[in-house]
Design a protein that fits this description.
Elements: E1 2-3, H1 4-7, E2 15-17, E3 22-23, E4 25-27, E5 37-41, H2 53-58, E6 63-66, H3 69-78, E7 83-86, H4 90-101, E8 110-115, H5 120-133, E9 138-141, E10 145-148, E11 151-154, H6 162-174, E12 179-183, H7 186-191, E13 201-204, H8 212-215, H9 218-226, E14 239-243, H10 247-258, E15 262-267, E16 273-281, E17 284-291, E18 294-300, H11 305-320, H12 325-332, E19 343-344, E20 352-356, H13 361-376, E21 382-386, H14 395-407, E22 410-413, H15 423-434, E23 441-443, H16 447-457, E24 463-467, E25 474-476, E26 481-483, H17 486-496
Parallel strand pairs: 4-5, 5-6, 6-7, 8-12, 8-13, 9-12, 13-14, 14-15, 15-16, 20-24, 21-22, 21-24, 22-23
Antiparallel strand pairs: 1-3, 2-7, 9-10, 10-11, 16-17, 17-18, 19-20, 25-26
Bound molecules: ligand UAG, adenosine-5'-triphosphate, 2,6-diaminopimelic acid (API) and magnesium ion.
């Protein structure tokens, strides 16, 4: 419990209807309001939290913070028992209130945030593994799941609302965590979900096409990412770990340097953290890591050029967090794979089946290029299965079709969370890019049947890429959400062909 006035410390507001109740919780969703809660009512893209103020009051809210002048006036008239505060930005206010409510757990954590179009989850997992390897307890927040000092929680969002983030941090600190590693999505930056958080280390992986449905243009998308580095998220980070091979990375580094941030640049061709002598197989990689602390040989079970970048980013961040080069090397060897990222499904079949989360044209292009490199030694073929998400960026659909068509020997075009859209309409958008570039493709909207078809088509030495859903366990359709797991479906398809798992065979 906390007095409303204490919760408001440092939170700027427009006006306040005086009264100072004890508050037992801070909620941004009326459905979670309990007796004694403070409800933060804010407008959104699909509804307006201000519509639910009277419902929240019925459920026992004692105070309401609103981003609406009209809602304030209305509640002042009709709900006289409520303490009221009007703010200009609901989520920024929420971040300040929640930080106060959970007693600033971030101050007791070394906080690292990863942003960029692709590679956030992988880089975060790598950094987390390095920190755990030197016995630092962590909170890990991202797309796949949340880890709170070893305990696993489901992840409803890559980057949760500030209130939920501070709750995770508080629980982590209570359980002995000293570090937090989190993915920071562009949605979160744009909306203010991480407003005011001071990062020790902010990491930029890359910027390529995605999320134009939300940001509108690449410039706005980049600006959202950049705000993690240049102080526009409230306060700039201490260190910025930035991919300097990426054009946007170079721009972001300039802006961060202007804001007084220390830059740790990385890349294959630029920066002070570099990789050389990369030797790559399907099972893993070795390369020389060059850093300002000296050189070391990295050995990892992750593979592919994109994972060289992810390892460079994680290594630089780990060094920024005080690890030695030896500790980085040891930590890099720990991770077997990141769930759903270049995860092989092995039932002793004579071809490879790989589940990967590539759901942008850049990721798909890189994935196919890696597969092409791996089959080139024995003249195998690349079979690529993918679809595009519904209610998401439409501009990437034909581009994904184009890169899949160009790089693959066979494409199986299917569905990937059509959400409210017609799966065939999404497929038709993809075909605009696929048809002109591809000699062999099949269309099968049912993802289960499509996976079976892709696997049936494989011959000895081929690689079957099942792209887009990675770790996901559900397929989101218009009228229902059904359990769906690419790894399991692939295992069943292999079993139907007489290939069976041996123990520990599935990585
Ligand atoms: C576009 C987007 O990010 N939307 C998120 C955002 O919605 P919004 O601001 O439009 O809010 P809204 O749904 O209109 O509701 C307005 C307010 O009313 C409240 N409300 C709503 C209903 C009710 O009965 N009572 C109530 O109080 C809501 O809690 C909210 O505070 O805030 C909501 C509450 O937290 C989220 O559920 C919602 O996520 C939607 C479902 C979503 O799909 N988001 C995705 C795109 C997303 O955020 N993805 C990124 C990662 C992307 C990537 O990995 O590349 C992420 O960080 O997860
Ligand atoms: N550094 C990278 N550069 C380009 N592509 C990458 C990189 N790392 C991973 N990928 C590709 O992108 C896919 C998603 O990777 P990952 O989950 O690490 O990224 P993410 O940024 O967290 O994605 P999301 O925003 O969807 O959660 C991988 O399966 C792989 O195909
Ligand atoms: N988290 C990202 C990736 C989703 C990947 C793909 N499976 C899809 O549903 O589009 C998003 O929500 O845009
Ligand atoms: Mg992610």
């Amino acid at each position: 419990m906390m007095k409303l006035s204490q919760l408001l410390a440092g939170v700027s507001f427009v006006r306040r209807k005086a009264s100072d109740p004890e508050v037992g919780g801070v909620e941004y969703d009326s459905r979670r309001v309990l007796p004694g809660s403070l409800f933060v009512a804010m407008h959104g893209g699909s509804t307006d939290g201000n519509r639910y103020i009277s419902l929240a009051a019925k459920q026992g809210a004692v105070a309401v913070v609103t981003d609406s002048t009209a809602a304030f006036d209305d509640a002042a008239r009709n709900l006289p028992q409520l303490a009221l505060i009007e703010v200009t930005h609901g989520r920024k206010a929420l971040a300040g209130l929640a930080s106060n409510f959970f007693a600033h757990p971030q101050d007791q954590l070394g906080l690292s945030g990863v942003t960029g179009t692709n590679g956030k989850t992988t880089t975060a997992f790598l950094l987390d593994a390095m920190l755990n390897h030197v016995a630092r307890k962590t909170v890990l927040v991202g797309t796949i799941e949340y880890h709170v000092a070893g305990r696993i929680r489901p992840s409803p969002h890559t980057t949760p609302e500030s209130r939920d983030l501070f709750e995770l941090f508080r629980e982590g600190v209570t359980k002995g965590a000293t570090e937090a590693v989190m993915e920071v999505s562009s949605h979160a930056l744009e909306q203010g979900r991480v407003w005011g958080l001071k990062y020790d280390v902010a990491i930029f992986t890359n910027l390529t096409r995605d999320h134009l449905d939300f940001h509108g243009t690449m410039e706005k998308y980049r600006a959202a990412k950049q705000s993690l580095f240049d102080g526009r998220n409230g306060t700039p980070p201490r260190v910025a770990v930035i991919n300097l091979d990426d054009e946007s990375g170079r721009e972001i580094a300039r802006a961060a340097a202007m804001a007084g941030v220390e830059i740790y640049g990385y890349g294959l061709n630029s920066g002070t953290f570099r990789a050389g002598n990369v030797q790559m197989t399907a099972q893993g990689m070795r390369f020389t890591l060059r850093t300002p602390l000296g050189e070391a040989s990295i050995s990892t079970r992750l593979t592919g050029k994109v994972n060289v970048y992810n390892l460079l980013a994680a290594s630089a961040a780990a060094i920024a967090r005080g690890l030695s080069l030896n500790e980085v090397v040891a930590g890099a060897a720990v991770l077997d794979h990141v769930p759903g990222r270049f995860q092989t499904v092995d039932a002793q079949q004579p071809f490879a089946v790989v589940v990967d989360y590539a759901h942008t044209d850049d990721a798909l292009k890189n994935l196919i290029a890696l597969a092409r490199e791996l089959v080139a030694t024995h003249d195998g073929r690349v079979i690529t299965l993918f679809g595009c998400g519904g209610d998401r960026d439409r501009t990437k659909r034909s581009e994904m079709g184009r890169v899949a068509g160009k790089g693959s020997d066979l494409v199986v075009l299917t569905s990937d969370n059509p959400r409210s859209e017609d799966p065939l309409a999404i497929i038709s958008d993809v075909l605009e890019g696929l048809e002109p570039t591809c000699t062999g493709f099949q269309v099968e909207p049912d993802r289960g049947a499509a996976i079976a078809a892709a696997i049936q088509a494989a011959r000895s030495g081929d690689i079957v890429l099942l792209a887009g859903k990675g770790h996901e366990k559900m397929q989101v359709l218009k009228d229902r959400t059904i359990p769906f797991d690419d790894v399991q479906v692939a295992q069943r398809a292999l079993a139907a062909l007489g290939f069976n798992l041996v123990s520990e065979a599935t990585r």
